[in-house]
Amino acid sequence: MDALDLLRRYADIPNTTRRYDASENVPILGVVPDGWLEAVVDADGVIERASNELCVIVSLKDALRRRETHHGEPRWHIPDLGRLKVPENLRALHTEVAARWGIIDLLEFLKESDFVTDFTDAFTTVATREATPREVIRKRLLLVLYALGTNVGIKRVADGGRHGETEAAPQPDRLRRKTV
Fold it and tell me: Which pTM does this prediction carry?
């Protein structure tokens, strides 16, 4: 917090003042990473203001992420509730939805949607040419979208199906595709 107080004191001082006053007690330990020491403290022991302020802001961000500090009251509090019981009305809703429409397979949904709309044609390559046949690209794109949509991952989708694709095949396509 001493580092933040120093930033507050220097907030109204123009950036043309590139170094802190020699009388200032500038906190370094726990604020400036070892790799940044040369950029913050020069050979004469004078502390560069801009580099130090950057280190203060980064260390504050890290401390907030680790919940080591907060400004005022915490904005969010997530209680540890353990495993909650599913409400009976939600269980009934799930049962009714399954009875009316059944279980929808995401891959079948993606394939049917592409059949009707040809949305995979909107994915174009950023490469100079396209050597892979369009039907193979279509299949790979659908598998990648399925892997991402289910949060299963490309490796598991590639290893678990009878589609003839390996993990390595869809990934370069995913990296070279862009939407228009």
Answer: 0.39
